[in-house]
Amino acid sequence: MARTLSEADSKAVLARYGLPLVTDRVADDPDAAVEAAETLGYPVVVKLCGDAIAHKTERGLVRLRLGDAAAVRTAAEELLAAATPDDGGVALLVAPMLSGSRELIAGIATDEQFGPTVVLGLGGVLAEAVADVAIRLVPIERIDAHEMIEELRSQALLGAFRGEPPVDRERLADVLVGLSDAAQGEVGLRSVDCNPLIVVDGVPIAVDALVEVAS
Amino acid sequence: MRPTAEHWQALFDPRGVVVAGASTHPGKFGFVALHNILACGYRGAVHATNREGAEILGIATCTSLDAIPAGEVDLLVVCTPASTNEELLRQAATKGIRAAFVTSAGYAESGDEGRAAQARLAALAEELDILLVGPNGQGVVSTPSSLCAQIVAPFPPPGRIGIASQSGNFVSSFMNYAVHAGVGVSRAVSAGNAAAVGVADLLEAYVDDPATDVALAYVEGIAEGRAWFERVGAVARAMPLVLVKGGATDGGQRAAASHTGSLASDDRVFSGACRQAGVLRATTIESAYELAATLATQPLPRGPRVAVVSTAGGWGVVTADAISRSALELAALPDDLRAALDEKLPPRWSRNNPIDLAGGETRDTIPEVLELVIAHAAIDAVILLGMGIQSNQGRLEERGPFFPGHGLERIADFHERQDRRYVTVAAELSDAHAKPVLVATELAIADRDNAAVAGTREAGRLCYPSADRAVAALEALWVRRRYLERRGLT
């Protein structure tokens, strides 16, 4: 059996392996959320976060592009009200709203026969249909990471795109090697899902992360 | 048990062989196994056992292994019913036999009882220090010893490819391609139920085998995926390894489950693990053979830049398409090479890559152009098209009503000599400059005896049946080179 960590705890684990994560703050109530937003600068994202919450988007627990204190306060109140008893302890996560037209997915998945694997794929709403994915067994070398990037069919998306610079392949390779290190270093780690990795000025940044561990 | 060099020698280069369960009936495996050993030129002593002690194919058989001399036979080929095989192994051990290939069925493939019998057989072989291959396999082939100890055809021409397969019929398929194309095989083993020796064991043996340069494998399922890839990755670092996996799709996986009992897995994981391990994964049996034959006979290119030399336009265009779709590059023709070619060719030649000679060749043009192109530092590999067409015309004339008059015999001979010379020079230049040069023509299928096709085969190379397949093979060479280079393994 496996259990998921909250987004905040997931990110804390991944930060130890150097993964590029969006700078976010945990807030317990609407006042704290507004304070965090003021510090981070608008626009922001506010999410409900808890150990038992794995599918935030599907449940409408992510509020994007909040432009001022009033919007943050309303969102924070609604999100806290949407928590159910099954969710256990919850908190608010406030993060700057990153923008980039390209999204990737990176993570760790445990295969029944081959054990932990590093996965890189094209992200965004069409990801599942496009199924552009590269997979390697943990541990990977840096050259394997580069070959995973090279293997994606959507190479045009990795170059200069819509006025944005090309994806920094070294930084993306850092993400993949960091994931491999996490899979080796964290006892009982079952899966990691960094979805999406938004490409901001060519640099991939994980704005959401979910870590699953054996319970 | 980790097989030793002695075990492998007993399997591949035995001093003597005994077929247990030889039959007088030519429809039985026990007959066919003995027949194939005797018919394919094996030079060691051949013994056989038969329940009645009948003479078979001129051999006086014994009723049991007891009667064969000790210390002269290394390999036991088992065609007896499963129930008798444990006793057989014990007797074999007393004769100094170190390897047994078991063709008998009735083991793990047949249910719980068979599974238990197989486990007992494997434990016994280990206790007796006998290398056990099979059971339920088709046999072993070893061309350096002219050994064809298998219950199926063919016996392939000698060569540098070592074959290991979970499916016996694909050993035959690979070897049939070898018979047709002429690039041959060193060792070939059908692992059968792999009670003791699996595909990974065989591949490791090929790495240490001086007769083998390239490994070619077919698998359907792998029990311990991670450990398997660690072993196979070590093989692929030491030796090119081409692999086909059956059950890549949902439909194929259902078929594999009933064939070898293999578990389903995510094919993308397998595919990624192959890339990571440096294993060249082929999607078809045919392309797997072609990649292995290419790796066994061509040098690795130092870079991806390919020149296409063609005697006519259309072939070159299609080949340029295939190159552009691959990891290879169509080389930009350097000015100095273009100027040098201008000296040799009429003004209508393509003046670009593909180098289309546009029918402008005289007696020595093709060898001279090849020399210039292959020697040039900006070219890493060459694909040569349009060979054999003159000989093909000669063939039509030979069969027509006007031959040999009207000067037809003379011209046909001339073209045959020329076509053979072109492909021979291509192979020589390839060796001299350590660059791959691939000859592609559909005549490889249409007329095996065509001078260009036969000449390529006689030069020890594969004549590719299409430019697309030559491009796929050349791409595999480049992928191999790049893998090694990027990891500091060259």
In short:
The complex is a heterodimer of chains A (215) and B (490). By secondary structure, chain A is of the alpha+beta class.
Write the topology of this structure.
The complex is a heterodimer of chains A (215) and B (490).
Chain A: E1 2-4, H1 7-15, E2 25-27, H2 30-40, E3 44-50, E4 62-66, H3 69-82, E5 90-96, E6 103-111, E7 115-122, H4 127-130, E8 133-137, H5 142-151, H6 155-158, H7 169-185, E9 189-200, E10 203-206, E11 209-214
Antiparallel strand pairs in A: 1-11, 2-5, 3-4, 3-5, 6-7, 6-9, 7-8, 9-10, 9-11
Chain B: H1 5-12, E1 16-20, H2 29-39, E2 45-49, E3 55-56, E4 59-60, E5 75-78, H3 85-94, E6 99-102, H4 112-128, E7 131-133, E8 139-142, E9 147-150, E10 158-165, H5 168-181, E11 185-190, H6 199-207, E12 214-219, H7 225-238, E13 241-245, H8 250-259, H9 267-277, E14 280-282, H10 285-297, E15 305-310, H11 313-324, E16 329-330, H12 335-344, E17 355-356, H13 365-375, E18 381-385, H14 389-399, H15 408-433, E19 437-440, H16 443-446, H17 451-458, E20 463-464, H18 467-486
Parallel strand pairs in B: 1-2, 1-5, 5-6, 6-7, 10-11, 10-12, 12-13, 13-14, 15-16, 15-17, 15-18, 18-19, 19-20
Antiparallel strand pairs in B: 3-4, 8-9, 8-11
Question: Can you tell me about this structure?
Answer:
The complex is a heterodimer of chains A (215) and B (490). Chain A has 215 residues and is an alpha+beta fold. Chain A contains seven helices and eleven strands. In chain A, a hairpin with a 3-residue loop joins strand 6 (103-111) and strand 7 (115-122). In chain A, helix 5 (142-151) packs across helix 7 (169-185). Chain B is 45% helix and 17% strand. Chains A and B meet through strand 8 and helix 5 of A and helix 7 and helix 9 of B.
Distance between the termini of chain B: 32 Å
Query: How many beta-strand runs of chain B?
Result: 20
Please give the share of residues in helix of chain B.
Answer: 40-55%
Task: Give the quaternary arrangement of the chains.
Answer: heterodimer
**H and E order of chain A:** EHEHEEHEEEHEHHHEEE
| Rg of chain A, Å, rounded | 17 Å
Which of globular, elongated, flat, extended, rod-shaped describes the shape of chain A? globular
Structural class estimated from helices and strands of chain B: alpha/beta
Percent of residues of chain A in beta strands?
A: 25-35%
Biggest sheet strand order of chain B reads 9-8-11-10-12-13-14
Question: What shape does the CA trace of chain B take?
Answer: globular
Summarize the biggest pleated sheet of chain B: 7 strands, mixed
Tally the helices of chain A.
7
Biggest interface, residues from each chain = A-B, 18 and 18 residues
